[in-house]
Automatic annotation (TrEMBL):
This is Glutathione S-transferase. Residues 1-83 form the GST N-terminal domain. One of its GO terms (molecular function) is glutathione transferase activity. Its EC number is 2.5.1.18. Keywords: Transferase. Pfam families: GST_N_2 (PF13409). SUPFAM superfamilies: GST C-terminal domain-like, Thioredoxin-like. The keyword Transferase applies. PROSITE patterns: GST_NTER (PS50404). It comes from the Bacteria.
Amino acid sequence: MSTYELIGSRGCGSAIVEMALELANVPYTVTDLPYLKPGPGRDRLLRLNVTGQVPTLVLPGGEVMTESAAMIMHLNDVAPAAGLAPPADSPERARFWHLLMRLIGAVYPTFTYADDPPKWTTAGEPAELLRTRVHGRRAELWQELDRHVGAPHVLGRRFSALDLYVAVMIRWRPGPQWFKSCCPALYAAAQQAAGQPDVGQVLARHFDPPLE
């Protein structure tokens, strides 16, 4: 195998890694599949990634990676000129790690629990209560993060993979208009990232319409 294979689904977090692959300028292919739908595609995905989640990245040597942050840092090692993460000796490096871990460790799991509450609690009123509380907690987390966002990028003058995460995640619930009103710094950073051709073309493949 001479290329990366990204296994993902339209509109999901795999868009983040797809943009990173574009920026890293490495050869890759995308295998799109409805990752929750039973069938040969999901069967293969489960063989590669026991969680059955996307993104799943197959490296040129055949090794499988299953966490987006790990994929981002791997691609940063492969193509540091892409600027996915600040250099280890830069003052922004600690802040990059802090915000990345907040995104994937605190915000990302809210979608796991709020998207399908009956999977985690009793259907009916308990499930709706869980959904409501998780949505509320997510809003709090986003607003807290918004206070740490610079301009024009999340880290300020330095573009990074944080901008890729934000460009995708503000298109998820509660949606772009909520971010425009309640988290203007995150919204502005997402717009700035979408203006980059390599980023914008991937976003256009995954989401319609673009941000206003």
